[in-house]
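Ops channel
N.P.: pipeline sanity check, posting one input/output pair.
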């Protein structure tokens, strides 16, 4: 066993040991752990015969001597509380450094450090650690979508799952590596594959869907106007190309609809028809159907895992 050079405080009152095989020892403050962690509060506040519970304002020195005399766990190196083996010594160091070093409040830690704090804070129910790590990892560039999805499931962060699923949706299902598939999880991976197929079918239907032009009073040739619109819609330079060749989501196609080449179509007819494809009070746009498919799938996925949406 080796005492940690920085996190074995000489006046500490709770000795912990890494359970990953390194047997690193840490001596921290029992009262602080009880006040910060629901896990340690429950475990360390249990009554011990002949002992009072140590509070943050209690007499640490006399309490610790009494604890050593009684041989309580965590009172000396030989009786150190062994932490679960899934926590590596390096992760424990980062977590305890966060708990007891004020420098964390001004530093910008790496995503790896934030993940370690989140991991141990979640296990030991340290809410300030959860909140601080989550805030640091909320930005899209902090985590790759696969990792964000995995952590979102692990810690119940529904908005992480939604954001990651949207990002992963654009990646062909056959392009994922086995390690990525493992992180995503079998249920979510199958859902992703099904949604991709369903959205593709929806895009094909849309690309060949007949859209009736909303003619204006100034239109003198309805048939010609309709032909120009159909040509734009089913052209590789129009809606069909955007949906199937460029694989653009329907919402982007909808936004770019007025700019697609539409020949000599009546300007007012074109404007009215484009406006008619936007959302209305009683009917969402047909070009946003894939959004509804994705949203429904993620909602069901979250529900099945008991995660608030």
């Amino acid at each position: 066993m080796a005492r940690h050079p920085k996190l074995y405080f000489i006046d500490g009152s709770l000795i912990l040991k890494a359970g990953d095989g390194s047997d690193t020892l840490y001596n921290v403050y029992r009262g602080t752990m009880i006040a910060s962690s629901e896990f340690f509060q429950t475990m360390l506040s249990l009554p011990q015969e002949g002992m009072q519970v140590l509070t943050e304002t209690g007499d640490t020195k006399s309490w610790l001597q009494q604890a050593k005399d009684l041989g309580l766990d965590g009172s000396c190196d030989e009786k150190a509380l062994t932490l679960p083996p899934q926590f590596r010594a390096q992760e424990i160091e980062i977590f305890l450094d966060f708990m007891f070093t004020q420098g964390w409040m001004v530093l910008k830690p790496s995503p790896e450090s934030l993940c370690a704090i989140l991991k141990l804070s979640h296990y030991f129910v340290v809410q300030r650690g959860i909140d601080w790590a989550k805030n640091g990892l909320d930005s899209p560039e902090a985590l790759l979508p696969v990792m964000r999805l995995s952590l979102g499931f692990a810690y119940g962060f529904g908005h992480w799952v939604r954001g990651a699923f949207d990002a992963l949706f654009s990646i062909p299902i056959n392009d994922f590596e086995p390690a990525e598939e493992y992180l995503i999880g079998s249920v979510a991976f199958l859902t992703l594959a099904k949604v991709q197929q369903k959205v593709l079918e929806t895009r094909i239907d849309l690309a060949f869907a007949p859209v009736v032009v909303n003619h204006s009073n100034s239109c003198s040739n309805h048939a010609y106007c309709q032909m120009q619109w159909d040509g734009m819609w089913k052209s590789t330079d129009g809606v069909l190309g955007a949906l199937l060749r460029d694989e653009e989501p329907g919402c982007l196609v909808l936004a770019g609809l007025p700019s697609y080449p539409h020949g000599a179509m009546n300007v007012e007819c074109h404007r009215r028809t484009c406006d008619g494809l936007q959302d209305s009070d009683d009917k969402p746009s047909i070009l946003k159907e894939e959004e509804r498919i994705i949203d429904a799938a993620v909602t069901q996925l979250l529900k099945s895992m008991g995660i608030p949406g």
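N.P.: looks fine end to end. The first strand starts at residue 2 and ends at 8.
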